[in-house]
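User: Hey, quick favor. My workstation is busy. Could you predict this chain's structure for me?
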Amino acid sequence: MNDPSPIRPFHRLTGVLVAVPLLIWISTGLLFHVKHRYGEAYEQLQVPAAAARWDRVGVSPAQLVREGKLDPGGRLSLAVHPSGAMVYQGLSKGRRVSIDGSTGRPLQPASPETGKEWVEAAVKNSPHARRYDSALRHERTGDHAVTVFFRGGKEVRVDLLTGELSQQGALNKWIDLTYRLHYLQWTPWQSVNIALVIAAALAVLALTASGIKMAVLHFLS
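Assistant: No problem, here it is.
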């Protein structure tokens, strides 16, 4: 017997509306589970450097603070610089500095050409080096930074003061897009995205409620 009530058409319409975000949610969820090429997208490049020689560190942070070369209470780390020196990385008068741990002298930022060499050395050591291909050009992207652009679409930014690297490319942008799709971040406006989430949740509840009601009516008929 045909159901004369409007529940069935409402249920079908709600199902159609829910189907699109549900399919997107399932497909992007599978991508998150498989994590295809995530290692490549988020790899941490490092400039090859000599092994750490802690015995070369002859200057203490306290001495550098007393001499006014480091701000007291600021974050401080000791790392191997791409030049091979053991350096303190911290703040001096609110500005980032790298100080040679053996001499106590602040390091000057490397030249853009040296920064490019650091990047190429790091990429050469990457297990995904072929994805980068060859370097096309490099340009300054800050006071102490250079970005190297690769034929494979990757961009690698190097800090000329610390030698720290960060990379991104089309693959990163694609993965970021799948996250935005998965969480219904479909527009540049947060208020609209919140409205989409609420609408999707209400549609699922309506679909469930109408389905239960049809099942009860069918059982009672």
